[in-house]
Sequence to fold (325 residues):
Amino acid sequence: MVDPDQADGSLEPLAVDAEDPPEVHPPLLIDVILAVDIGGTKFAAGLVTARGELIARARVEVERDVGPESHYTSFATLVTEMQQQAIGQGARIRAVGVGAAGPVTHQLETISPVNIPEWREFPLRARLQELTGLRVFGDLDAKALALAEGWLGAAQGQPDFCAMTVSTGIGGGIVLDGELLDGESGNAGHIGHIIVEPLGRRCGCGAQGCLEAEASGLAIEQITGRPPSEPTYEIMQRTGTFVGRAAASICNSLDLQLVVVGGAVALGFAATFFQSAQVALDENVQLTYSRGARIIPSRLADSGPLIGAGAVGWRGVRRAARGVH
Ligand SMILES: [Zn+2]
Fold:
């Protein structure tokens, strides 16, 4: 996991424009990651220290029905604003860390977020490098959240767990033996595509009865005709049951005892969701190693995605210092 003590702490002299009045530079220089979260409905940016403190944040809603460059303009404005805030706070940005909705290619060379249809194979990494002049490290948003949960959240210090986001879509990240799983293309952990209802709804991936097709915010809206922010008791229970069922498959197949769940839908449905999820999990984890597995809420609340993006950035800085790519 990200260990701040191992982060490369070498300090380069700060380039100071001789014409700037000296009082605009506060005396203390903090190293930060410029963290960026690209979700289906919003862009968020923040500054994350090596201890995981989020010292600034801002967000902008993703506009609907505009072209790819309009999206990029509002995104770039947000990133630039965060660079200005770093200067104002006496922080030095070591790199950019990004968590993005999938699918993506390695290190976010391109991203194609399902809920931003105008961005298909959008060359995010090159554009961000060009914009900021900084190194850019990126990963899937749910994998970033898994890093954050293991670093500072509900799975702190745990070598084996699964983190999930139940939001507009459903994603996940799996940490086994202390390592976040990447997979061949970097997309490991797409647990929204575990089949939970064999005769269920058709999923965007082409399969039938995937967790995402039954329990995501988008699916809930299609099933009930109401946004997930206005749920019935039954839909909260049903969503929890499906998520718990998927969690059981993960625990049984990967030898896990802990599933941490974040995302606006799960956290919004709160205790009703988590109780139903735990009941479904209990019913389906009967093996000696999986019995007693727990499903619990993220402790990072709405800071999780940005802290996760920060963790991706710090991991990149640390790996670059070791010559690992
Ligand atoms: Zn699917």
About this structure: The mean pLDDT is 90. The pocket of zinc ion is lined by residues 193, 203, 205, 207, 210, 212 (CB under 6 Å). The chain has two domains: 30-140, 154-298.
